[in-house]
Amino acid sequence: MTLSTRYSRPRSVRWLPGTSFGDLFQEFEQFLQPLADASRGSIGVHQPIDLYETDDAVVVQMAVPGVRAEDLDLSIEGRQVTIRGTLRDEEIEGRRYWLRSMPRGDFSRTVTVPSGIEADAIEASVDQGVLTLNMPKAAEAMARKIAVSSTGRPESVPTLETTQEAGA
Predict the structure, then answer these.
(1) Residues of the domain holding 71
(2) Is 134 helix (H, G, I), strand (E, B) or coil?
(3) How far is Cα 78 from Cα 103, in angstroms, rounded to an integer?
(4) Does residue 9 fall inside a structural domain?
(5) Is 77 among the domain residues?
(6) Predicted model pTM
(7) Helical residues (DSSP H) of 55-154, grouped into ranges
(8) How far apart (Å, rounded) are the C-alpha atoms in residues 90 and 36?
(9) CB neighbours (10 Å) of residue 10?
(10) Are 60 and 113 in contact (CB under 8 A)?
(11) How far apart are the first and last CA of the chain?
(12) Per-residue pLDDT reduced to its tens digit, 117-146
């Protein structure tokens, strides 16, 4: 298997006051991703990924163009979701490549998801080259509205006035 990589120069990262620190951390993660990939042996195969939350689920979406469902392996351990797959290298006789830069080979990506996921209810599907993992939140992790009632001020609660009178 031949795997060619071409590293582009990282774009400069500039943080401006008033922008989100999340954007800064995302830029930093993207800057370090090639080093992490090299240490895991998956140089050159970097699948873009989105992780977001809805009211009732945490969702991971990953671009997997050309990857068959049977070539994907998904696992969860604690809060770590690992997606492994293979981009098959189909050698066709008679082809002489002038340029060959489409990714091929094995890839692996691990993301940390928020706690409170129902691991037994995770659903995964591939549609038009996008893998979607829908991870329902556990009942205790879902946002709830808490009613606040006003019962008036009990007489036994010290106020600023009563503490000043007691000190005098």
Answers:
(1) 47-90+98-140
(2) strand
(3) 30
(4) no
(5) yes
(6) 0.57
(7) none
(8) 27
(9) 12
(10) yes
(11) 87
(12) 888 899 999 999 999 999 999 887 777 788
